[in-house]
Amino acid sequence: MGCETSFDPAHFLNRELSWLEFNQRVLEEALDARNPLLERVKFFSITSSNLDEFFEVRVAGLKQQIESGATERSVDGQTAAETLRLVTARVRRMVAQQYLCWREELVPALAANGIRFLTLPELSPADLTWVGEYYRAQVRPVATPLALDPAHPFPQLLNKSLNLIVRLELAKDGESLRHQAVVQVPRNLPRLVRLPRSDDRQDYLFLSNLLGYHLADLFPGTRILGFWTFRVTRNSELYIDEEETINLLKAVENELHNRRKGDAVRLEIDADCPPDLRQALLGTLKLTEDDLYLIEGPLNPSRLMSICDADNSPELRDPPFVAPVAPALLGQPDLFAAIRENDVMLHHPYDSFESVVHLLEQAAADRDVLAIKQTMYRTGGDKRIIGALIDAARNGKQVTAVVELRARFDEANNIKWARQLEEAGVHVVYGLVGFKIHAKMCLVVRRDADGIRRYLHLGTGNYNPTTARIYTDIGLLTCRPAFGEDATNLFNLLTGIAQFQGTQKLLIAPFELRQHILALVAREAEHARQGLPARIIAKMNALVDPGVIAALYAASQAGVKIDLIVRGVCCLRPGLKGVSDHITVRSVVDRFLEHSRVFYFENACQPKVYVGSADWMPRNFLRRIEVVFPVEDGNLRERIITGILAVTLADNVKAWHLRPDGSYHRPRLKRGTPRFRSQTEFIHRSLAGQTPVGQGPAAGKYPVVKLVPRPAALKSAAPGA
Questions:
Q1: From 267's CA, which of 220, 245, 654, 685 has a CA 20 to 30 Å away?
Q2: Which residues make up the CATH 3.30.1840.10 domain(s) of the chain?
Q3: What is the pLDDT of residues 270-309, one digit of tens each?
Q4: 327-505 has which CATH code?
Q5: Which residues are known to be catalytic?
Q6: Cα dihedral 508→514→517→522 (10° resolution)
């Protein structure tokens, strides 16, 4: 979004640099020796996979702006070219720090714990024999040598594929001729080859090294002078003109094919690769030195996750945690009866996501269920969720799945199971033209003894049991009639031809969400000017929208205390004198990925709490279908305020605080101050049956943070499930 005249660029942080600061916080978890070793390796890997996506989308976008000649400035006052220069410098510092950590900290520590990455010269004769057999049986059949000469043009390398650039010598007609070739490291084989051991040692060989060792077999009659690994990152954004597209499914499939061949945006290569080969690759890929990253370590660290996922070395990991069933649903065979009794809140991953899966399975089998309607963004193709919808259709129920095919990097999976649903008789819809379906919503229509009732699950996270174990999210199970009516109207809008008719309770983007958020912020500002209690706490993944940021500045200037918990990008500058004096911003990066969006407004001692799928970004407000819902049950509202938001604000171990200059720091604790880690407290509470903070296993050890005091008459009952 371009800079508008009413916005002072000095009041905004650059979006791309803010994202890189988030990734730095991820890297800090790898650098932190207090974390278990394999958890450090995990964060080291995540840092790289995050950077991959950043280059595929954000850097690619900057390059496209520059190539198009765009001179428009972002809201922070930077042109695309200026931003790209700053981004490149920041990424270089990050990558240098990341691989220094790998070489000097992680590799030695792993070796000390019996996990080694060996090179060919370090292998015993027995190992070399085994490696040779592995190569002949597994690698050689799928490896393809590709010559580089006038008869063999440079191959179209797949995005993020790992390759070897090979220099070799061939004797012909009494003279030696030098040649270059490329060999792609097979993608369908483990990147780490575990060597056989009779004890508990874990010795690995990188597949690229194994392949390089056998290059003479792929190029017989030549002399191998050297080989170096490299990887190309390409523009991976989808470009689909929906107005001109009749079949969105086919269009996405075609674009996925094109994505693999998108323009190159980054070249990573072994640091010791000769300069002339580096320059040749850059020229072929139409890149410059600014796009070149020399790597002293593994080029695709995301493949290191295999050693983190292996079932071994529990002492090198976080303690295992299996989420229990939420207390409100414990021992409840009939989930519909439980929801009729009270609204139910699920706080994942501390409450099991199995309850949501069981609700779908129960709805599929229940003869009284008439219809199921569900939005689907990133399910991961879970067999039980897809299977429940298929079973429901086969059982004669009306089943509708509103599928977002363009969930970034999940498109191929979504296409696959969307076809499975269609073949089973599920009515699959691909949403509205021009808008991504990002809402998290499932509607079950049931004929109860007293009439037709609509049961609803609303949430902040995807219908994905795998990510539900590692993402923090909030879900609500309810059968409130007004909620059900709003959900019905939204599904009709998504599947039919209709104009948005407004809602009773739910806030829907792109129609009204932004305006409502602005109104809520403005009301807090007015309360502050009147001397009434005013407070805003907002937890989200990203804060980018300039208009909302300006409204928060105005509220701060009116005296509203504002605490923002923003995991990733934050373009707001807190602590600017006369602008944002009353605003704090913190980011929690810990074992689980903070993903829930929660918005609290004190509202003169009559607090309003909203939960939903939308971050405060232009894309969420204007280009996506989002659902944000009020928490109307007093017990649940109080649980969110004191049992989730206050606990998160109290974190002084994994929380980072944003400075006005865009940097983050962990506050230094005064001597004697108890260390408080919010996610650990949530785990304690979960295992204790949702005991309120301060009363569980850690009672007396952690502080209880109080929000704005409210008269006793306005306080809700003790937090419940």
A1: 220
A2: 121-237+266-287
A3: 999 999 999 999 999 999 999 999 999 999 898 888 888 7
A4: 3.30.870.10
A5: 438
A6: -150
